[in-house]
Specification:
Number of strands: 0
Order of helices and strands: HHHHHHHHHHHHHH
Strand content: under 5%
Helix content: over 70%
Largest sheet: none
Number of domains: 1
Length: about 300
């Protein structure tokens, strides 16, 4: 793996890991939908400014349906559900639950793409689901549990997004798909715009800055740095950095918010990570042949 790819992958993980804490700060003033809208209004503006320099073509009319579906699943639904879940679920715990997304993708890839899972991989999926159960039912009341399940739903939504991306990647670059999906997602988030404008009037400076940060860094730049890292090195080597994200997110949440994960969350999270590693363990593959679970990245 080249130094540049390593540098870009690490920066991406730092951006994505920091987003869980930034979401918690943003939710102090904004509703989940309003925060998602503001994040991608900023991200969309940034990506539109960068699009001419990235050589992004206008999408074919026949692909608009897939692009809208990608935007709905990977942007609007995913981020709204994640924001809703983080009202009660700590940032580090949310990162541990989202970490299961690649295992969901491996299951969906078998259904839609014919990428077969071996018995050990199915064992990893089962182990990861057990970890999710430990996190969800080992903490708090039913309000907390519904919030945790919303984050699990967000992980499933982004896994569906990875499958849709597979078809778009046949015609467009990863950077182009990022721009298309972000703008399509913003379209579905427009119903939250009036609430966002209302929340802005009374929002704290910290929440304002959190929304801007989420849009520019985890929302726009991180996807571009991740895609560039994938172009510079083997897919498997780059995606291995994803396993660092929950650990880094917990460290950041402790430093920024003083959050300490409970024992059930920590133990369940470790089980989830082991399960995801097993579920995605395959022989070395080229970037073109890499499984869908590795090509996508759960960018929070």
């Amino acid at each position: 793996m080249t130094r540049q790819a390593t540098f870009l992958a690490l920066w991406t993980i730092l951006f994505w890991s920091s987003s869980y804490s930034a979401i918690r700060i943003g939710l102090e003033s904004f509703s989940p939908g309003a925060l998602a809208f503001l994040r991608f209004a900023v991200a969309g503006a940034a990506l539109l400014l960068l699009a001419p320099f990235l050589g992004i073509p206008w999408p074919r009319r026949g692909d608009w349906g897939l692009i809208l579906l990608a935007g709905f699943l990977g942007i609007a639904l995913y981020h709204t559900a994640l924001n809703f879940g983080e009202i009660q679920v700590p940032a580090g715990t949310a990162a541990l639950l989202i970490a299961f997304a690649p295992a969901f993708t491996a299951i969906l890839a078998q259904v839609f793409l014919g990428e077969k899972l071996s018995p050990p991989q199915w064992g990893g999926v089962a182990l990861g689901l057990g970890g999710i159960a430990m996190i969800t039912w080992g903490n708090g009341d039913w309000g907390w549990r519904w919030s945790a399940l919303a984050i699990v739903g967000a992980a499933f939504s982004t896994s569906l997004f990875f499958i849709v991306e597979k078809f778009l990647f046949r015609r467009y670059s990863p950077a182009a798909v990022t721009v298309y999906a972000s703008l399509a997602g913003l379209f579905f988030l427009l119903p939250f715009a009036p609430g966002a404008v209302k929340d802005l009037a009374d929002a704290s400076l910290g929440s304002w800055l959190a929304a801007l940060y989420l849009g520019i860094f985890p929302g726009a730049l991180a996807y571009l740095t991740w895609n560039r890292a994938l172009q510079l090195s083997q897919t498997g080597a780059v995606t291995s950095f994803l396993y660092l994200a929950p650990v880094v997110a917990m460290i950041m949440a402790f430093a920024a918010l003083g959050e300490t994960p409970s024992f059930p969350s920590l133990a369940g999270g470790m089980v989830v990570l082991v399960g995801v590693i097993l579920a995605n363990r395959r022989p070395a593959l080229s970037a073109e042949a890499a499984p869908a679970a590795q090509r996508g990245a759960a960018g929070p």
